[in-house]
Amino acid sequence: MRLSRRIEGITGGGSDGWELFYRARALKAAGEEVLELTVGEHDWTTPRPILDAMHAAALAGHTGYAVVPGLTELRQAVAARLAERTGVATGVENVLITPGGQAGLFAAHMAVCDPGDRALHLDPYYATYPGTIRAAGATPVAVETRPDDGFQPRAADLDAAAQGARALLVNTPNNPTGAVYSRATLDGVAEAARTHDLWLISDEVYDTQVWEGTHLSPRALPGMAERTLVVGSLSKSHAMTGSRLGWVVGPEEAIARMIDLATVTTYGVPTFIQQAAVTALGQPALEREGAEVFRRRRDLAARTLDGCEGLRLLPAQGAMYVMLDIRPTGLSGEAFAHALLDAHRIAVMPGESFGQAAAGHLRVALTVADDRLEAALETLARFAAALAAEAA
Ligand code: PMP
């Protein structure tokens, strides 16, 4: 039987660029020891006070259908958080609770794109972006950023691509590059959105993990609150990837329509998870402690790879990864990553998994204990140096 063009088109045909990851998992399943520095998954579980709250809520009987837009108490907590970060008045009517940031990204594109609309995103990009846009019926258009600019998008590039587009998706702090967009960058983003009447979808799921500069939400910029949908999540900030708890914050009318969408898709997020989320947001120390681990490992990576022949570390300004420019080895990110997996059973993501702009780079997730990370990076550095010496 024929399936819909929409669902068959989600992947866009061809590979999803995650072969390295699947290979590493297959080796592990076959009993080999592989050190995985691939996905953005913490090496610890959800903090105890959050789990206690989840447990208590479930035992107290909160196991039935949830209210679709989210618990008022949680929507209030998210609204207060966004109001504080953006200086924009935010109420419950501006917040939809979603099953993770990913569902928020999909809802946001569904809310603003008609079939066939051009929806811009930046390259390199988080792996699901093009598929999310296609699933919403729109056409993804990648706008390249450059390693030499620290992967900050150029206003002129945005302006050139924005003609006739409907939406622009940005992500700061950025996965995979670790870039935290500067005020100047965000002024350029906002200018393109206002000039070309775009919706701005701002993926801020790493907003608690900032190592240099400060996180600025484009929603805070003049004339942007009315055209910005902020996507947030507890996955990264509170090690709650499996709980599926995120949100979209935006203009009331857009949120009301996304509640319609939630009614016919997710039908809300379990109440016991939402009550745990209220606890999580009420204890700022939890997110500070989680972020601290990645800050420490990011510094460790910088120290370990300093001066290494064959690669250059791009100092991450935020998020839980570092990018390595391995072009001096003469290999593509993909060839390097497969060779490293073959030789040392260390799995890192090829830059090419995240688009063309990250070709010749690797993304290393800082998701194993410090001593193992240090040893893996030392091995990787020796491997790159030997390749670079051969290439010279
Ligand atoms: N955006 C970015 C940039 C991400 O890296 C991720 C997860 N890796 C998500 C959104 C989605 O996260 P979740 O659905 O778990 O909230």
TrEMBL record:
It catalyses: L-aspartate + 2-oxoglutarate = oxaloacetate + L-glutamate. One of its GO terms (biological process) is amino acid metabolic process. It comes from the Bacteria. Its cofactor is pyridoxal 5'-phosphate. Pfam families: Aminotran_1_2. GO terms for molecular function: L-aspartate:2-oxoglutarate aminotransferase activity; pyridoxal phosphate binding. PROSITE patterns: AA_TRANSFER_CLASS_1 (PS00105). Keywords: Aminotransferase, Pyridoxal phosphate, Transferase. It is an enzyme of class 2 (transferase). Residues 33-380 form the Aminotransferase class I/classII large domain. CDD domains: AAT_like. Its EC number is 2.6.1.-. PANTHER family: ASPARTATE AMINOTRANSFERASE (PTHR46383). Belongs to the class-I pyridoxal-phosphate-dependent aminotransferase family. This is Aminotransferase. It comes from Rhodosalinus halophilus.
